[in-house]
């Protein structure tokens, strides 16, 4: 009886056509005088008391078992209510799917209905699959509409809605301008609709990934969405540079977001290759630039927020790509830099005092700052180019003035000189020109030194396992056998820092020693 | 990487009187409509319990499921609690707590104990500003060490409570939680009893 009462009330609300934003379970009884007693419904927020959920479910399941006797309308409402309470009920979902292909369900409204379900249960696989089916149906129906409108015109232009995002490149073979305008208008409307719909889909994916981190289904759905766009290059770049950067900064331990960035980079590469206008070299340069920017971005994140394993995994991906494209420069040995980081490694292994480690740490940071554009505040670097030019002018002027004045301002002189040096470094050094395995090793050493120096030890030694992977990677690709001893000392360091995986490092050491023995034999 | 709530208490540390809640800031946009009220009450309850259970001039970081609560009980009878998720850097959280207490003292330096209410709107502004720890943390990036008092790290709220105290009894007696929230806690606990994985 209780279940039936609630069922009928819910039916009322759904039939009245009011928009429902959210569904939830409440723990306080609603007053008897309210309009929707025993439900709570205000400003689109629908709530059912927790004691009423079980009777409601029992009643609706009972009805569902008798669905052969019910009419189509009744089944639609029944499944809607049933899925609200139990979204994982696949039979009801499939029933709705048949009505979707029938044409009894409006795809757009169904998408809005799914928003409510996904907000509470963002990780149900069947819902995401169903959502993809609805989206396909929505695009199909839109395409049919457009084709119907076009078929009414005497000039039958095959305007496939999927092809044109840039309407200006629309290659119409029509004769009259009026028809062209009409078709263009239709295409414009259509493109707007598609873009609006896709924006909403992207925002739902972000929302669900926010609620439940590393949400596999939300991210794979997001990747599938790109199939519906035909000229997505500008949108891809915007997604890479704006929306995903914001998302990643807020969710650093979400490796799925970084994996999605990897997908975007690959997709941009394939899209650039399709455009045969530019020469191959220029294209490859563009793609490499993107990967270097990615390296800068990830280094920025790693230095500001140390201790997130996901960023190091992402760095592996970026580095592999760059190493494979720039084999000559990456694997080339730079003796000076190599001596530098080999020395740092020895110092680390031999356990220096804290003061010396601090000095070492500062030296490395100063060295890396202009290359990776990190630690800009610490060493008085200015980020924007305009400010840089102004500063050089000012420092030159101050230098001239101080030459005529006394030595009271020697301190300022030194500071301005330092600033000048720093600014020159910032302007002249770019990561692309000096990037190599040796520079990357210095970066890894810095991370481990940071771990040693900082007092909080909140930072885990993630950079250490990355460093060992890097040495092995270079050793296998360039047959640089000297790296064996360095590998051993690095593994010994890791044994010291990463106490949870001691056995892992022991086994690795054994492997290296055994391989040596085999070679000797 | 976000801060969910920020609470400021006045407490003399004598353990006879309870901490007095002066101001709260709460970030509600990541919770659904039906959960907001009880989450806010829950945050205030947890902050109150932790403020009561930290000694004078002590800092603590207590982990509770997906969230970490940072408490700082300062020498000048002020105590601040921030509830963040586990990505938020600890150093920034404690510098935020310091800033909240400093700003409050700037306004109400000599008047603590005189007034009945202490409207402090800046707490909400600070909460929003520190949602992005990078922008707000430029000073403390250079200072890599805070002052000498160390931070005590706890794994669960239960460890903060005294012997013989039960979280359920505290919840029942609490003024911060409405009947709805208490009921929600009881029902949720009952339903999750069968799950022994976590």
From TrEMBL, chain A:
Keywords: Prenyltransferase, Repeat, Transferase. InterPro entries: Prenyl_trans_a. It holds the Pfam family PPTA. Residues 146-192, 385-419 are annotated as: Disordered. Residues 146-189, 391-416 have a biased composition (Low complexity). Belongs to the protein prenyltransferase subunit alpha family. This is Protein prenyltransferase alpha subunit repeat-containing protein. It comes from Anaeramoeba flamelloides.
From TrEMBL, chain B:
Keywords: Coiled coil, Lipoprotein, Membrane, Methylation, Palmitate, Prenylation. It is a lipid-anchor. Signal peptide: none annotated. It is found in: Endomembrane system. Its main location: membrane. SUPFAM superfamilies: SNARE fusion complex (SSF58038), SNARE-like (SSF64356). Residues 9-108 form the Longin domain. Residues 138-198 form the V-SNARE coiled-coil homology domain. Belongs to the synaptobrevin family. This is Synaptobrevin.
